[in-house]
């Protein structure tokens, strides 16, 4: 049987092809050395930080420094000067006239003595805009302005202000209320003021802001109505 295969030309050809096929497979799939494979890996190089990233970081640092220094400056100014808001008050007033024309139109004549007080010991105050408004209930019945002025530290300034209303229409509720108040010899008004002020911390540091003053005043009836009571508040 073996002799038959040795003489068979197909068997001899198959034996000759097997070594060549094995060699070809070894060339296509060579054995991989793990040690060599590890050394073939490329180590990534560290990336360079972009200039925009450095710029943003620098900008944030500068911004925080400015905020911290600004906060410290405000704190130092507050501790040194102890600033307080100016006060608006009405220590005296006179009701010269108040009556209804044709049963629903209000006419009035009121003089108030307004007191502007600077309570600060180290801060001067400038008033650049002053408007005074007179209300009966929720209705604006008169308005006027006051010339600008300044106050040194711990100074008070008295201003005589004349408020006249002419034929101002009132609601039916306000008409009934006014008649009752005149009959009871006790008339109530609201005086409101808007002030543009500037606080001066020395010669170089200034701070401007708006102030709002409000006073509720009660007077006796005209023609010589005097101030009976008042309550005032001043806020920003």
From TrEMBL:
Domain of life of the source: Eukaryota
Lineage, top ranks: Eukaryota, Viridiplantae, Streptophyta, Embryophyta, Tracheophyta
Pfam families: LEA_2
Location of the protein in the cell: Membrane
Late embryogenesis abundant protein LEA-2 subgroup domain span: 117-201
Compositionally biased residues, Low complexity: 9-29
GO biological process, alphabetically ordered: defense response to other organism
Protein name: Late embryogenesis abundant protein
InterPro entries: LEA_2, NDR1-like
One of the record's GO cellular component terms: plasma membrane
Origin species: Macleaya cordata
Keyword Transmembrane helix set for record: yes
Parts of the chain that traverse the membrane: 54-81
Membrane topology: Single-pass membrane protein
Keywords: Membrane, Transmembrane, Transmembrane helix
Positions of the UniProt region annotated as Disordered: 1-29
Main subcellular location: membrane
């Amino acid at each position: 049987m073996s002799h038959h295969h040795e003489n068979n030309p197909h068997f001899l050809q198959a034996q000759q092809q097997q070594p060549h096929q094995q060699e070809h497979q070894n060339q296509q799939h060579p054995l991989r050395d793990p040690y060599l494979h590890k050394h073939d890996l490329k180590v990534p190089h560290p990336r360079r930080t972009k200039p925009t990233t450095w710029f943003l970081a620098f900008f944030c640092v500068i911004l925080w420094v400015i905020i911290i220094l600004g906060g410290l400056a405000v704190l130092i100014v507050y501790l040194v000067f102890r600033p307080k808001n100016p006060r608006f008050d009405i220590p005296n007033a006179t009701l010269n006239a108040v009556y209804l024309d044709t049963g629903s139109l209000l006419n009035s004549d009121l003089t108030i003595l307004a007191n502007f007080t600077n309570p600060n010991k180290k801060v001067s105050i400038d008033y650049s805009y002053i408007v005074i408004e007179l209300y009966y209930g929720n209705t604006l019945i008169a308005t006027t302005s006051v010339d600008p002025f300044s106050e040194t530290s711990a100074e008070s300034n008295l201003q005589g202000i004349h408020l006249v209303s002419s034929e101002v229409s009132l609601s039916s509720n306000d008409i009934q209320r006014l008649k009752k108040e005149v009959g009871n010899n006790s008339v109530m008004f609201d005086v409101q003021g808007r002030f543009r002020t500037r606080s001066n911390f020395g010669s170089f540091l200034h701070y401007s802001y708006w102030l709002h003053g409000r006073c509720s005043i009660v007077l006796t009836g005209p023609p010589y109505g005097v101030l009976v009571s008042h309550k005032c508040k001043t806020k920003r």
